[in-house]
Amino acid sequence: MSTFHKRGLTIERLLELEPLHGAQLITGEQNKRNRISRINIMGSPDIDQFVRPEEFVMTTGYLFKDNTIHLKKLIDALHDRGVTGMGIKVERFIDVIPEDLLSRARELSFPVIEIRPQTIFSDVVRVAMEEVFYQESEHLVTLYHRVQVFMDQLNRDHSLLDLLAGIEQMIGNPIVVLDFEEQLTAPLFEQVLEPKECLHLNHTLEAKAGIGKTTITIRDESFQCYCVPLVSEGLIHFVPYIACIETNVDLTEVDCMTLDKVSSMLSIELTNQTARKRIEQKYLNQFVKELVVGDIVSDYDIDLRAHSFDLDLKDKWFQTVILDLEGGVFSDVTAFQLFLKKMTMQSHGQVVGTSLDKAFVMLLCVKQKASIPNMLQIIETAVNRIVKKDGQRPLYQLYGGRAVQDIAHIKQSFNEAYHVKTIAKHNQLTAPVVNYDDLHVYQLLYHLPQTPEVAHYLEEIIGPLRSTRNDALYFETLDVFFKNNKNVRATADTLYAHYNTIVYRLEKISTLLGIDLQDAEACLELQLALKLRFTHLFKGG
User: Fold this and answer.
1) Of 192, 435, 439, 479, which has the fewest CB atoms closer than 10 Å, so is most exposed?
2) Model's pTM, two decimal places?
3) How far apart are CA 452 and CA 474, in angstroms?
4) What are the PucR C-terminal helix-turn-helix domain coordinates in residue numbering (predicted)?
């Protein structure tokens, strides 16, 4: 892997100039590609106070003819100041360059050039600076051309992939972008790296954004890179960026200048794209909401709107899932939509959603019904990771209705998911994912119609409790009593009541209902009646 390279006049190129004919690089061979931005001729012993980084210093040695020790100390000072190198004329005032000076220069890898006595410094300065100005003008012309090409692509409304392809063609190295929706776009790397490796690359580049040229590691190989943060509106929890990684050709200074220039224009373009997407997302949010509540009755309307959102709803299986978050994780609907986009990318299907009744509703769309459990697993893993990242306890649950194959039945799947949520909360079902099929006996009770026979059955079994002033207290006591496997002590602890108080209530309930709470058959029928009562209360009975 080559080192980071800047275009311009280098030590190596300086030695090729005609005025320095016969000059030799004595030390600092490994830094012969260091750039020279200007030439300085030493006129006083304390020149280290007047030099700038990337300068090349020349001396006749006159100032040090009687004190070469000071010349050795000067090497340290020039190196610390970022000076590119030093040229010393020999056979005029100094016969040879002192060995102790060369020894110190070798330790610092500091370039020292031995200049022949016939060399005219003014000629060196003139020719060298002409070369510097030529190189800099080349940079400006190249940069101007690249910016013009990029602006032309923006005006033609090219996609982000096309824009990145254009930059890659200019620079000759792969480009990576993390946009304002935390979406990673790395066309070349995504073809050779695994998803986990791309994720690691993103985290590495995000940490490098804004610190200039640096080194990163990919698959145990080091690469030079340059990463520029993109300017976004508002506060976000990540760092969007555009980065170039040196894998094909040397990453030059003009390449970095190109990224600096296009980053500002790309920031504006991504901001506009994000604004357009939010508007589109608002309408998609409404479309999904109407699908799950059954407000769209026209197939033509569904097809037209699905096509406008690039949704393929033909010959699909659908399942509605309610994501219930205690305390909340997503700051707003936009954050939820970004989450759904990631889920779509990670699964073999489409995931869209909306907010409804203080919960987030997801609609899973897949070609095969068998794909749904895997999608739910991906969603569960992602939610759990987000919750843990925010430092919260994983207080969330996913409630799923049954999968349906007809768009018209999506409403039914949503109603079932909502029913699952209500039943699960009432009965403290704590599994992270609860599907309609997990309700067991509640499925049977839920489908019982609200007939006079059902009402008569409830009245016969638990009617005496309904007619008392303490009906709510009695029903709560029975509910907790059965959930604690008829353990009176545990029931008292759960209700924060005295043990004897619970014993009294249970005896009163036994008397009112005319049953023995130790009778297994009587308790089974009572529990079924309580569950049926709750189900019918939920359904409005």
Assistant:
1) 192
2) 0.50
3) 24
4) 475-532
